[in-house]
Amino acid sequence: MYTSTNPQKHQARVAALQAEIEDLQKELGKEEDADEIVSKHHKLLHKYNESKDAAQILMGRLAEQRQVTIRQLYAEYELTDRD
Fold first, then answer.
1. Whose CA is closest to 56, among 83, 36, 29, 76?
2. Please, what is the end-to-end C-alpha distance for the chain in angstroms?
3. pLDDT surpassing 80 at residue 1
4. Which of 20, 49, 50, 67 sits a CA distance of 20 to 30 A from 42?
């Protein structure tokens, strides 16, 4: 947290932060709500993670059925560790 014993420095800091907030709001757009955007992003990320988890389970089962490692299966399908 920012603290200052000098009231003038404190006022200048508050003004700078308010100007930064205004600039960011302009960049975001007046009709856009940051909380709404974050909420939507969170929901999409949750769906992505669920899908990735399901894919990992399927890859594990396929590797088990073929009696190969998951790494070998990734190589066969030209996947990386990031996929």
1. 83
2. 39
3. no
4. 20
